Amino acid sequence: PSPTSASQKLAEKLTILNERGNGVLIRMNYIKKTCADPKLRPSILTDKVMEPAIKYINKKFPNIDFRGNIVSYVSHLCLIFIQDHVYELLNTIDACQCFFDIAFNFDFTKNYLDLITTYTSVIITLSRIDDKKALVGMFNCAHEMTNGSSDPSYPRLGQMLVEYDHPWKKLTEEFGPHTRSVTTALLSLKMVYPRRNLPAEQWRSAQLLSLLSAPATMLDPACCDTVSLSSFIYLSHSERWIGFLLCHSSLNSHQASQELWKMALRSGLYLTLTRDETLNIHKVSEDLFDSFKGYSKRVADIKECREHVLVNCGAMHRERRQFLRGAMKELYKVLEDEPGLLGPKALFVFMALSFSRDEVLWLVRHSENMPKLKTPEDYVDNQMAELLFYMEKLQGLMRKFNHVVQRYHVQYLAQFDALVLNDTIQNMYVCPEEESVLLSSFVSTLSTLSVKQVEDKEELDFRGLRMDWLRLQAYTSVNKAPLPIKDYPDLAKVMNVIQFHTKMVDSMEEMLLESSEVSILCFYPRVFEKMFSQSSEEMTMKRYLMSFPCVCAHFTQCGHPHCPEEVSVHLRLCVTFLEQIAKQTSNVVLEICAEQCNLNDQLLPKHCAESISAARHRKQKKPVPKKGEVQKEKPGAESLRKDRTVATNVDKMHLMLTELCSTYSLCTDFIVFDHIVVPTEFLLSHLETRLAEIIVRMANYNQTTQEIARPSDLLAGIRAYTASLHSLSSYISVDVTRLVKSVLLQQTQPLDSRGGQTITTLYTNWILESLLRQASNSLIVHCPTMHCFVNQTTDTEPSFRAEEFSDVSELRALAELIGPYGLKFLSENLMWHITSQISELKKLVIENMDVLVQMRNNSDKPEEMASLKKRLTGGENVLKRMTIIGVILSFRSMAMDSLKDHCPYLMGPIECLRDFLTPEADIKVTLSVFDLASSAGLACEIDPALVTAVANMQTDNTSIDEEYKLSCLLLVYIAVSLPSLALDPNSSYTREHGGHNNNIHCLATAINQVAAAMFTVQNKNIMQHLKEFLLMASSALLQLGQNVERVEIKNRESVYLLLHMIVEESPFLSQDMLESCFPYVLLRNAYREVYRSFIITLG
């Protein structure tokens, strides 16, 4: 190369300055946003004390004398660096009289135009920073105060800020000398831009992007000329180039410039400066040309172009998006079926992605700044999800089959491109030595490639080759170059194709980023969310909704090393979209479940009474239905259809579910800002929350009226929901079993993971507040024969039937619903009530302690016992409280018994372990085994939960001896109070229930279990003290036999049965012990007496 072009290093400078210029542009935009946002604005600019100083600086800038402190000065200094180097490079290019043509030196021309637009964008953005003078001026004052002198760069920077207050006029003056080079470069787009900017009708007629339009050429490599390569250039970038604002003089002297300029002005209203900063190109052009003489025709052209945009542009871009949706879908389906075509047709993929990217960005840009139009619907796209979806799908396909593309292009480079390049070099009549060295190195590099390198996953890097080609373009584009590139179009074409092929081998990710990067949506959150909302309302778009959160994965690409703080790590948009999709899906799933639950409810046995009644009277003449009476449909009638085309509500919900579940097929997971996002987990989370709410709602608990659903009904509903939920697995890969287990396990706890009430809490509250409270008042009776509670016959209608909530099937359903954990919680609450009653009993014992001590010491002296009993107070209260304890323990025993089916395979070993224990065993070991056994639903001699509750009652104020004394006296109190039960008319024994009408038969359970628990805690002999109790109780009850008053002996036989029940339920007492102190003949006569009044009916 000539010494001038080589020594100037034009290629290197263009590359570096473009990268640095983009960084400065992003930094300037970030400063503008920071100063404009009240939340991010520097505190010194908002300080009321600083307001006068800031006004003074803005007024006197740049000649100020002030002391302060500020940041971002260095960012403004970068402007001087950029300005100096850009103008130096532009002057060098003009001095070298460089040749620009996009068809020949593609990269050189593109970099040149990019540099000009980037520099211009930096200056425009700078002019939009309102606080720039305050920022720079205050920093300089702080520098002067700290260092004793002004910053050396401040005068020039201050002057620059003043000059660029009105940037366009200054820029046009500075670019005047460069008009020739800029115009030449722009005019080279006259063959590229029109073909890149065709309406959808011409795309459709040319069958653009279609692989099926010419099946015979499907395996042929795509034509990769300069026009095709230019498809990677952002359309908006081309329009920024063609603004002609910096070389406006050519508009009056070149007809071609004028035509190209008008075409660009007809493409849209706004151009992107950077991020979400836009430029109203028509307004800016009109304002600028109004200030020049002789441009009245151009101003008229601008107005005409603007009207054309307002009338036609929205519809044109809408049609383009419509075409691209179909074309991309076809392209994806073909390539998915035959991924081998990705090799020869890779260019089609990148063209499709580039066109789609440009349409997305155009719509976003204009939606945010939409003018007042007669057809605003052209700027609204409720099918954007589909376009984004296929963009994501095509990218995924390229990444998945990257090795196919690599393998194809490595062979192409080695076996075709290298040979063509070599032939082209051989046919060149002039080839200087250094150019020859570069070209020969290209050939040798490509010739050594082999498929084995791809198979061995060897890392291939052609960045050096591409940089050399850019250098060669610069060397051959200067005036009087020994090897002028414009004389060798074949060389330019071959090298441009080779450059594309090398990128297919080593820069797939960069190519995908360059052609389909839509991270700018990060800066348009409102528009992005609006697009999602519009798409989610369309039934046909629901299957594509996952593309929106997937696009958020691109946001990590929009950061820049020069401004890392610009893009904060946040997942708000991504999470919002996934939450909305999950919410819609979970709503549909649970609606289907609710419908199935209703259908399942119709099949429950409780609804068959009418059918049974009709069957019993089927021989009778069928009564004529009353006029207007609607016949009740039988279950299954909803499945009978006369016309299959009529869609039911369930059909519509299943269709919607299919569409929504299809969107989860886009990806199983993706990464956003180093966070791995799994879409199905959002769905499971929503389902978990909603299902928990539904289960609690199905319990139908009303605290005011104390109503609640039967456990069996709730269990049937949950089973119906679970069965329907499992059908979700046939749509998408989700672990429904894990979901259901998680929800149901949480329902066994007092509160769920969100702190809400569970069915465990609801049923516990209802049992305590309603069932057991009424049982304590004898409105509900414990019925041992039927193992349930039943309502007493009263004048008022009961709020619920107790047997419907407490029989064996209902308690088993309850145990299945709330599980061992829930029953443990219920048990703990029951124990709290029991210990409350025991505390009250101890208070009564203490009040009557002297009398009880004497009675215990004189138990064998009937006369003294009779006189002492008259001094005893509160006997009825003691028995009432013990009865309440007995009722609670009876219910607890029934509830725990329903756990036996919970772990069938462990019951045998647990029973063996329980039965293996001996009375001599260590009490701690015994209680541990009993705890295990009771958790499995087995009955134990000593209730470990009650032992724990009683032990926790003891305080430091009372000693073990005092507690022991109270326990002994409590048994005495109960024993001597038993005869008073005969006075209660409700103390009669009912054979049907197997108990007494006032629940005093529960005293047997209470006495046995409370005594066992108290004496276990006090480490005393349980049997001995129960024997003592039996003796005193027998003696007291035998006194009833000597009483001849009918009032006292009315229920005497029923009360006698209590002794038999106490012994029968006690593991520590035997019939022999009872007979030694209470004649068996009295028990036999008592049973005969109470059964005599029972009438047997045979149905």
Fold and architecture overview:
- The structure is a single chain.
- With 1099 residues, the protein is mainly alpha-helical.
- The protein has 50 helices and 8 strands.
- Strands 1-2 form a two-stranded antiparallel ribbon.
- A hairpin with a 2-residue loop joins strand 3 (670-672) and strand 4.
- Helix 48 (1052-1065) packs across helix 50.
- It starts with a helix and ends in a 7-residue tail after the last helix.
Defining key terms:
two-stranded antiparallel sheet, single chain, 1099 residues, elongated, two-stranded antiparallel ribbon, mainly alpha
- Coarse morphology: elongated
Rg from Cα: 46 Å
Order of strands, main sheet, comes to 1-2
Low-confidence stretches: 66-71
Percentage of residues in helical conformation = 55-70%
- Write down the oligomeric state: single chain
Largest sheet entry: 2 strands, antiparallel
* Average residue-wise pLDDT: 88
- Helix-strand category: mainly alpha
Number of strands: 8
Distance between the termini: 119 Å
**Beta-strand content:** under 5%
Count helical runs: 50
Organism: Sphaeramia orbicularis
Protein name: NCK associated protein 1 like
InterPro entries: Nck-associated_protein-1
